[in-house]
Design a protein that fits this description.
Number of helices of chain A: 11
Structural class of chain A: alpha/beta
Shape of chain A: globular
Order of helices and strands of chain A: HEHHEHEHEHEHHEEEHEHH
CATH topology of chain A: TIM Barrel
Largest sheet of chain A: 7 strands, parallel
Radius of gyration of chain A: 17 Å
CATH class of chain A: Alpha Beta
CATH superfamily of chain A: Divalent-metal-dependent TIM barrel enzymes
Distance between the termini of chain A: 24 Å
Oligomer: homodimer
Number of domains of chain A: 1
Chain lengths: 265, 265
């Protein structure tokens, strides 16, 4: 999604050329290119599919909406399996219209995980709960901290449910480093994503993620924290940025890889 | 600031007519109208000045900038005393340019409080640390939670330093209710402000606070929490909303008072 302007073949080609060994995919471009075609494309290039984004949106109260959300998440699990990735990222969903109860909404996420985690495990897929920054608590994700995500994940085996650590969402939280250590100790860091925090935010707050090094997040410190927590998996970069999408995608990927490389050392 | 479009005499007049018994002021309109004239205006109408906003912005590293910030805060303390309010609201300030260290920035806030709290006490003014929503952590306020604000306040006597509970900033935080109870038990809730959370946020995130009842914050629940914590002080409404400022100020004040009244029961 960092280089949304690239087609999947362009993305695969540029990754191979730059020595980027894996790529996290989103469902929409995969569906547009075709699930089987996408799987074949990345298998053929030798690129790992590090994760699939995203399932989730599990906070509905209405039974029909809940059933539809569960069905959609099972489809996402199937898609992850077809793409050969073991990790499906879940964004919990926001408050249903008219509701003011974050605690109850989080409980509905937990209930939905009970239904989804065994199914995911049967397909060889781990669920990765992503806490989003509290700016999104009402409309996108009622899970705002790593501690909350981890508390939900810990109801299940680590092989079934873990968390996503995305620097953009957790950088501000003084409790996050301890949560990273706790998640690492139990093998629950299922994905690690980098983005920087820059201001001012654009309207709607969604498409203002900063290119690595452009903002105020100490990304080297976060990479160190993840290393200290025993995380040795892929490091994804996920920038939602309308300005970056407006430019050349290959140049953006090159620039991003150049900025990421020293952090990974 | 909820009715920024009103002059101070218009504000005072409308408050008296509506039975609003107190008003929180901001330094800029007070300075524009004149400090002594403002003090006289509100004394003459019998309205309490519930608080003055704002001091703070205490995170600079540069010695000259720090000295200037301390001087400005002493001036704000003097202004609070002149207006007859016992409460100066402090917004901590964001990260200095180039810094990525939230912890060190919070420590500089603590250091500055050590210099300011005794001076404020000598003028009969309490300092009230306001945690702002984490969306403002980088550019406006490195104190993002009530727990962080309270940890800073607890270095000083409760009569000198306490916290502001603003629903807009803390509604998302599952740890906030316990922090309210802790703050109440030690007499450190120095101000209580209401605003609702509505989305989408406007660009810059600052001017999108929701009118009471328009958003997803359970304001009645928060008023109950403050009551249970023993808070019996004034309840302020602080809406920064460019849309609301564009309309008639007296009608806005009337509507706001109408919405607030049942919450205060």
């Amino acid at each position: 999604m960092t280089v949304k302007q690239l087609s999947l073949p362009e993305l695969a080609d540029a990754c191979v050329r730059l020595g980027v060994r894996g790529v996290g995919l989103w469902r929409e471009p995969v569906a547009a290119y075709g699930l089987e075609a996408s799987a074949k494309l990345f298998r053929g290039t030798g690129l790992d599919v590090t994760s699939l984004c995203r399932g989730g949106f599990l906070t509905a109260i209405d039974p029909a909406e809940r059933a539809a959300a569960l069905a959609d998440n099972r489809a996402a699990i199937d898609e992850a399996a077809a793409l050969g990735t073991d990790t499906l990222v879940l964004v919990s969903g926001g408050l249903p219209p008219g509701s003011k109860d974050l605690v109850a909404a989080r409980e509905r996420v937990g209930d939905a995980l009970s239904a989804l985690a065994p199914y995911a495990a049967s397909r060889g897929v781990r669920l990765a709960i992503e806490p989003l920054h509290p700016v999104f608590a009402s409309d996108r994700c009622v899970v705002s901290t790593l501690d909350q995500a981890l508390s939900l994940a810990e109801r299940f085996p680590a092989s079934q449910v873990g968390v996503v650590v995305d620097t953009y969402h957790v950088w501000w939280d003084e409790a996050a480093p301890a949560a990273v250590a706790r998640a690492g100790a139990s093998g629950r860091i299922h994905a690690f994503q980098l983005a920087d925090w820059v201001t001012p935010l654009p309207a709607g707050a969604l498409l203002g993620r900063g290119q690595l090094g452009e903002g105020c997040v100490d990304l080297a410190e976060w990479c160190g924290l993840l290393g200290s927590a025993g995380y040795a998996g892929p490091v994804e970069v996920e920038l939602f940025n309308a300005g970056l999408w407006a430019g050349d995608g290959v140049a953006l990927l090159e620039d991003t890889a150049r900025r990421a490389t020293p952090l990974l050392a």
